[in-house]
Every structure is written in structure tokens, then in C-alpha cells.
Amino acid sequence: MLNKIIRYFLENRVITILILVLVVVWGISTSPFNWHGGIIPRNPIPVDAIPDIGDNQQIVATEWMGRSPKDIQDQITYPLTTSLLGIPGVKSIRSSSMFGMSFIYIIFDDNIEFYWSRSRILEKLNSLPPGTLPEGVQPALGPDATALGQIYWYTLEGRDPATGKPTGGWNAEELRTIQDYYVKYSLSAAEGVSEVASAGGFVKEYQVELNPDAMRAFNVSVMDIMGAIKKSNLDIGAETMEINKVEYLIRGLGYIKDVSDLEKAVVTVRDGVPVRISDVAFVNIGPGTRRGGLDKEGVEAVGGVVIARYGSNPLEVINNVKDKIKEMAPGLPQKTLPDGTVSKITVVPFYDRTGLIKETIGTLETSLSHEILICIIVIIVLVLNLRASVVIASMLPIAVLSTFIIMRYTGIAANIVALSGIAIAIGVMVDVGVVFVESIIRYMEMPENRGIRKGKAMVNLIYKAVSEVSGAIATAMITTIVSFLPVFAMEAQEGKMFSPLAYTKTYALASAFVLGLILLPTLSYILFSVRIDSKRIRKVLNYILIAAGVLLSVLYSSIPALGLTAVGLNNLLAHRWKKPGISNYINIGIALVVATYFLAEEWLPMGPQKGIIVNLLFVTGCIAIILALLWLLVIYYERILRWCLNNRWKFMLLPIATILCGILIWKRIGQEFMPSLNEGSFLLMPTSMPHTGIEQNLNYIEALDKRLAAIPEVETAIGKWGRVNSALDPAPAQMFENTINYRPEYILNEDGKRERFKVNRKGEYLLRNGGTYNPADGFRLIPADSLIPDRKGDYFRQWRPEIKNTDDIWQQIINVTHLPGLTSAPKLQPIEARLVMLSTGMRAPMGLKIYGPDLETIEQSGKAIEQSGKAIEQALKDVPSVIPSSVFYDRAVGAPYLEIKLNRDNMAQYGVNVEDLQEILSAAVGGMILTKTVEGRERFPVRLRYARELRDNPEALSMLLVPTATGAQIPLKELADIEYARGAQMIQSENTFLVGYVIFDKKQGKAEVDVVKEATKVIEGKIQNGELKLTKGISYKFAGNYEQQERATARLMIVVPLALLIVLLVLYFQFKTLTASLIHFSGVFVAFAGGFILLWLYGQDWFMNFSLARVNMRDLFQMHTINLSVAVWVGFIALFGVATDDGVLMGTYIHHVFLEKDPQTRHAIREAVVTAGLKRVRPAAMTTATTLIALLPVLTSTGKGADIMVPMAIPTFGGMLIQSMTMFVVPVFQCWWREGLLKKEETTGQCLAQNRPVRQTARLVPVDLPVDDPRIFGRDDFPHGHHPTGTPVTGLQP
Questions:
Q1: Which residues, in sequence order, are CB contacts of 186 under 8 Å at separation 6+?
Q2: Which of 894, 1199, 1068 is nearest to 49 (CA)?
Q3: What is the CA 796 to chain-centroid distance, rounded?
Q4: pLDDT per residue as tens digits for the range 839-851
Q5: How far apart are CA 702 and CA 819, in angstroms?
Q6: Distances (CA, A) of 478 to 1, 407, 423, 483, 506
Q7: Stated pTM of the model
Q8: Are 1067 and 1080 spatial neighbours (Cβ–Cβ below 8 Å)?
């Protein structure tokens, strides 16, 4: 089948070329990168930073304003939770009850369809039995979004439309009204938006503040005033009326339009005189109560958050939102300030995921470009044939474009993980071209094929060469793809994270293989057969090359363009060389220099400040060292292999020792769930004490933002206290979220790539105002619009010299945010924090859940201030690997309460019932919303309550007037007692069981699993020796990323061995014997050990601890302790495929040589193995070199997304480095095995010669020999017709 495909497309080259053009154009059209140049229409793959790994969960939010957490828990959360537990597919239900709000999180199994689960919840909510919830309480289903839904945060600001500078002039109430009734609805109409939630500012209210003295004088009760307000706000429609045959619509206008309308409302009539509301109350417009707000760099702000719908593409939704903002911008209000300045409402984003997405994709695009350039360099060096190099190198970009096409139409979005699949597949993709082209070159160099360069003979030559190795390549591809089955089998967050990588890697390998069968033979035919015989045409073309090089160099200031000129000159002077091959080698050298220069200029591993020369020398040195080592391996391969064959046991000590070291490191290495993705933003989440009021919270958030904004590396600092009006934000008023956007290390362009700016010869940046800036004179921030862009200039660094990485920025943040009364905060980022909070209920990636029968019991075991360190919080502070200041118990109890306890005897005496008294309390103290005004599209509530000075202390509250049955009014203190108490600030539960959280953070470099094991040991030790005493009924368990890691590890321990067994089975189908399959499989174990050895070396301070050009190599390669995470396991799984690939190809060559030569002596067997090894060593070295060098830019990458790529690349790099041993291990094992078979045959021959019975023994024979071939067993088995012992064998029969 494969051979038919190869021949068809090789003979129909026009069709093949059309397919090539189609793949290139279609691939560029679907590419997530900006490769089209404005020529080809775009239909790109959806783009995001990371896959949506949020839990499959729905949120039910219920508002019951004014009610305590205890009331919410007992009357709303608990009954709803018990009702929802019976829904099919529910995995668990987690809930939070806080002041006025209930949040219930229903987590479904991952295989439950998202919108099906929503319909089941709505069905259950609509069928709740009467009386399940209090009257008037209506639960609502949250937005159809996941934890990654919050994609765009913004503020509304007054700005000068001409200059764009802030002008102010708008108060918080005006901004909130514009947000709620104009901006919010406009943005909600953008395609893909699930919800727009408002944050900050004040909701405008009509506030009626009662005057108890006037009420007593007019004998008016609270109930009377409530009724009057409700009756004063009403419009009616009175059908129609016809006058003179014209129909008029009749409206009775009675809605409140301003304060005077409310003041004039009549409460009652006394002695024929109306008593108006203005007579017994003060009416004004004021701010509504709030449980959250925004602060921008110390100033109160108003804004909102855009939440993307489930399944939508974030970048597309953000672009739709931006289009809506442009569309509505002209219609937003504006005013002229007293100084004549025009202030127009402007939407100003402060968290826009576009930057993260573009930077992440830019990192991958850069890495892919570097890998392709490196592949070209390596291929040129190892093949030393420009035509062959072009064929092999061209397959890479074509296969990548083909992968983009498949991704586009299979729904795989382009993100850091998905595109990493292509990046780590580059080595195997190159291997396809290397093996095919190397086979073609080998056939062309055969004596009988010399001179064949065109026509049918050339077609047949290429066909034979490609078809000979196509089966081996197919097997290698299958084993590589099968080795990735564990990634497909992953579940939950890790499955959602890495399954796109499994798909893209599979697509990339399949594309490389199919295109290798279809396109490569045709490209080889064209490039190897094209010869320009006319000297005149060759001379003209060389002159064109010379001119083109000079022209391009002048137009684009590109030094590498002069490589074309050099090639042209070299070709013109070729006749001067005595040896005809010298000119070709010079052209190869020119191509190498140009490719290396391009790579150094784009990569700049030593940093832009070191200049192109230093970077070029470093890149050349890295490539030269690896290539030199592998070239030495190729050159001395035969000598080394012969020594290994003659000293098998000595040699085998090396791989055995390597494998043992790998296993030892594996057992001791730390484990964690997932490395954090650098999002370009931090989220600082401290909390204040449970008793802290709103005024103090405002002071805290203002102080925090001012301190954060003073850090030079911080671009913006926006603080949020409490919650926004969204079910996705279940934060109490005492929780703060400071979104800190820090500047990129270097100024970036709109595509997320570093931008260059003009410098003079002194290295000073030229400014638009004519000035200069020299970084050596001291750090200073220069806006990008003050610098002059220049393609040949330098990158501009925005961080101070002492700030080396994002950890240094976080340390600066920690240093300035210590405020009395605020807790410490773990290091979090916006996306990471949303995932953690919505998947675990905690505000930290690590924590401990305490379960108990009631809140007081949990509090007693969980908080820090209990005596003698008998609490878990104190115990965790004693764990060596835990940061003591990060340990904090999220207090469930501690909020101060004023409890009004009714005296039912006195109430009965005065004829007051409970309902009337509670309603008066609710209205007069808490403030009751009685009605809403209708003012066009705006709606404002009317709230009734006592004036602040009459309800701001218990004494004033006790004087609240309550009407009795006789009409008299008596103070509240006659009917109830007011007492202080301590109660719940927030009540949390899981599956109806109450739960508390102790959060903590690990020290830098410590592994999550090790920290939890150490903490468990400490806590259990304290419990056993009596230092820690848990109240009866208390239980605890560690939660957060640790749970995810344990589940993922358990899953991988099953599926990885299973996948390796399947790989072994595939090898068995190819080689037909278990022994041969195991031999070719042996490379996996060596590579496995190599990966772990490099992981261990990364954590050793002495490894690579030296400097070149004053750049430390550990810093350059970001060497630190790497823990065994899911990302690292994915790197190992990718390594297994490549390792098996090399073993399969080496084994296939050996098998072919044995079929061809049929060696019958030990010497012949060894010679056959050496011959086969020499055939495979060069392509194997090329594969190894390409994989190793291609991973160097990934290992030094610092851009967004590098946090995910680097842990995946380390095992592959270490494994491939050590896996070079497979080039010796497989031949040694093959020789060992075949010599063993020969020894058994010799023993059989001796027994037959002495007429002794023999046991049947297996013998490996060429599978294509006929049954009656005398070589199967006969005289031809032994040289000269004699057994080695000298016994004649003439009498032996086949």
C-alpha cells in the first residue's frame, strides 16, 4: 500500500506539486501566526494562552440581602444543596454562605455535557417543593462560563477626547449609572459574551430617612410610611380615547422622577390636613449599600468584567468586545468642566488577556522558527549536500502548515500546550526526511547507479530507496504515536491541559510521514535531477544572485543578504579551484554562516545588551560542541562498536549503571501537579480581619494600590475589595484582589514580540524629542512612543538591573504590602487564582480542609490563637518546607454580631406580633427597598430606613419606635434585648458537611507532594505526643494541587506501562519475535534514565555554574530544582516515542543486512552488525543532533509559555543525550542474541554428527527463504563442509 502511494505521486509529479501549493497556501491561511503578509485570506485557528482546564461546574447564586451567613446557610444553602445532590453526573457540591448571598458550586463529571447539566439544574430548581426556600427568594443559575471566563476588566474614566489624558469630573454614582445602564448592555451584545458584571462605585438610591420625633407628633408608624411610598410610584394605562376620529393612547404618569415627587406623597390625613412624607422624613439621593468596590492606584474607580461564554474563543470574544467599545464610544456621555476641559467617558482596560495570548503564541512562533533554522544548520553540516539539505529542511515548514490545517478543522485551538506538541515533535519530523533522503543518497552513490540523474531510471532509483525504508519509518511513527496514548488517557485538569498537545503531536508526525511519502520523492527528483548545463545561463543567474544580495542588503540593511552575493561570486570563480568539490563546500559554508547569523540575531541567548557578535559566537559554540561530539561518534563509531562487541559485559555496565541512577533519582525526586504559567500579571489576595468594616477596607485597598504603583516594574495596580455582581466572584467584603500588571522585560510590539529601537554608536537610545538615553547612566523608564523604532536597533529593557526575573518583582511586591491587620498572600496570578478558587474553594494552591459537625468545633481546631500551639495552623508553621507567614486559617467564626432577642411576654402585653416587629426592624435599621423608579432605561431603588445617627449604636437602636395594637408607639427596648455575640463571617460546606480551610505556601524549590508528606508527618507526630489535640468529630485532609497531583500520578502509573506494552506489541508485529522486540525497546529505559539524570543535575548548584561574557550559564538556562510534574511526565512520554524510533530504525537496518548476507559465523554476525550500524549511525546522529540543538532555544526561553515548555523539554534533552548509547546497545544485544542462536545450532550439529538425540531449537532465518533452501539447515551452514570441530557434515540432510 505504501509503495503504491510512493510510486503514484512520484510518477504524477504535477499532482504532487499542486498538492504542495495547496498545503502551503491553505496552511498559511489557517496559521495562528501573522504569516500571510496581507495577501492570503485569513481563516486562522482559534487562539488562546492555555486550554480551558476549569472544572465542569455550574454555579447557583441566591440573594437574600440583609441576612446573616447563618440564616443563609440554614434556610437557603442547605436545602438547595440537598435538592441538587440527586442530579445525574454530580461529582460533588461545594457551597459558601455569606452576608446576603449563597453560592452553590455543582461539580459534574467531565463526561457530562456542559449545557445538559445546566438544563438539569434549572429543571430541579423549577420543581422545588413549596416552602423549600423563604418567600420571595429566587435562586439564579450563574453565567455559562468557566473559571477562565474573566477575560477583560476595565474601568470607566473621564478623559480628554483630544489628548486621551485623564480629566476626572465624574463621581462614583454617575459612573456606576453609566456602567449599569449603558456600557454593560452594549458589551453584553458582543458575540461570545456570557455576562458583564459591574464593579465599584455607588448604585443611586432615593433614600427616605425617618424622623421618629415627627412620626410621634403626627402619630404615624413605619408601616404607614411604607404604604405611602409604594402607592406614590405608579404608572397606569387607561386604554384609548377617540376624539374627532383620532385615537389617543391614555397614560396615567405617576412614577417618581425626582426627590420632590417623593416628598409630596401623602402618608395620612390628620384633622383635614395631609401629612406628607417630607413632614415625617428626610428624602435625598444617596449611595446604596455595597459589598465590593474598585480602586485604581489609590483612587476609587468604577468598571466591570467581561465574562466569555463556555466554548467560545477568548481572543475572538475580546476582539468582539473591543469592536463594541469602538462602536459605542461616540455615544458615551461627556461634559465640560469648570475650567473648560471636555471630559468624555472612556473605557480603559486594566486586564486584557490579549497581551498574554499574543506573547504566549509569540514565544511558540519564535521557538518554532529557531528550531527550523537549527534543523537547517544541522542538516547542512551532517549531510554536506545543499540539495539534500533543502529537501529535508523544506519538509518541516510544510508539515507544520499541514498540522495547522488539521487543527483548524478538528477544533484544536492554538495555545501554549497545543503548539508545544509541534515543537517537541520536530526531531521525529526531521527523522522522516533524514532517513528517506539518506537512503536516496546511498542509492545514488552505489556504483551501478552512478550517472543516473534523470528520467525513468531516476524515478525507479528514488522509488526503491524510499520504499526500502518506508516500512521502518511507518513502524517508528506508529510506536511514537502509540507512546502518546497516556496523554490521551489523562483525565480532569491534566487531561484538558495536555490532550491538545497529544493531538497536535500526532497530527505533526502523521503530516510529516504522509508528506514524506507524497512530496519528498518528487522534491528529491526535482532537486537532484535539475542541472543547468549552459554556461551562459549559469553566469547570468550568478550575476542575478550577486545583484540581489547587494540590493536586499541595501534596502533592508540585512547583512545575511550578502550571502547571495557570496554564493554568486563563488560560483563564478569555481573554475579556479583545482578540486571540483571545493566550490560546493564553500557554498555550504556560506549557507551555514547565513543560517547561524539569522539564528543568533533572532535568538540572542546571551541577551540583546551583549551585541550580535557575542551572541553569534555563543550560538556557534553551542552548535559546534554538540555537532563535534556527534561527528566524533560517527567517525569513531566503528572502532567503538567493535570494542563494545568484544567487551560486551564491560560495555553493558554503562547502560545498567545509567538505568539504576535514573531509577534512584526517580524515587527521590520531588513531585508537583503543574508548573505555573507566567501570565504577565500577579494577583495579590490578602484578607482583613472578620470584624473589619467597609471604611477600613477602603483605606487598606487605597494604601495597597499606592504602594504597588510606586514599584517601577509595575505598569498598573487595580484593587478590588469584596465582590463584583457575578456568581463567579464569591468573595466576602474582607477579601482583597489586587491585579498587578507588570511591564514586560522588553518593550513588545502589538504581536507580542520584542521591538527594536534606534541607538547611536555609543549605545544610547535616540528619543523623538532629540534627546538620548544611556542605560549605563542609571535606570529610567522611557515610554515606547518616545523611542524611535528601528529594525536594526536594540531592544529596550524596562526592568531595573537588579530585577532578573518575575520572582524578584514578586519579592518587591511582598516588601511593600505588609500592612497591620492584613494577612499575607500566596503568590498567585489571575487565571491561576480563578482556577484554584473555583476548583478547591481556597484562595491558595495548597491548603488543608478541616471537616467538623459545627462551625465552633472547626474554629477551635483550625485557628491560630488557641493556647499551646494545639491548632493545625500553628502546627503547619512548624513544618520546615512551609513559609510560616503564609499559614492562615480562613476564619469561619469571628464576625461581631448585634443580636436582637425578642421578649415575647412583653410583645404579647403590648399586642405586637413577631412579623410586624421584624419588618419594622428590617425597614428602619437595615433599610428596605420598597419600590423602584422608572426613568427611561434607568431603574433606581427607593429605600426606607432611619437616619444614620439613629441606628449607628445599640443605644440609639433601642429607641426605635414600634407601633402597638392601640396605636401608641413604644421604644424597641421595651420589647427586646440587644446583645453582642460572635458569629460566622462565611460558612462553607462540601456535600452538606461544614468545612474550614487552612491555607499555606511552600518554600521556593520545594515539591508539593514532599511538603504535604512532611506536613502530615509533623501533624500526626504532634497529635501522637499530645501537642495537638483535635476536638471530637474533627477530621482533616490536604487539598489543592496536591489532590490533583495524586490523582494524575495514579492514572499515569496505569496508562504509561500500558502504552509501553502496546508499543512493544507493535514492535512484535514488525519483528515477529519477542527477543528482537525487547532489544529495540531497550532504548526507552536508557532514555528514561537520561531524562531523570538531567532533572537531577538541574537542581545541583555546581552544575553549569560558570560564566561566559559575564553571563552565568545556570541563569541563562534557568536552572533550578525541577519537580516531577505532569508537564515533565509529558516530556518523558514524548521521549519514549523518539527513543523507540531510533531503536526500530537501527533494528530494521540490522534485519535487512542479515537477510542480505545471511552470516553463519560469529565473525560474520559481528561484521553484519557493524555494517548495519554504520548505515544507521549518520541519520541517527542527525536525529539526535537536531533534537538536542533544536531544544536549546526552548531551554533558554523566558517568554510567556516558557514555564510549560521548559519542563517538557528537559527530559527530552537529557534522554536524547544519553540515548545516543542506543546506537551501541541495540547492535550489542542483536549480536549477543544471534550469536546465541548460532551457538545452539552448533550444539545441534554436534549432536546430529554423533547420532545423539537433540532437542528442537529455534533458529532465526531469513523469512523470505523457501522451505527447501539448503541454507536453512545443511552443509552450507558450515564453511568448507565441516563443522568447526572438524567433523565432516556431508551426510547431513536439509
A1: 324, 327, 328
A2: 1199
A3: 27
A4: 777 777 788 888 7
A5: 12
A6: 16, 20, 19, 8, 10
A7: 0.78
A8: yes
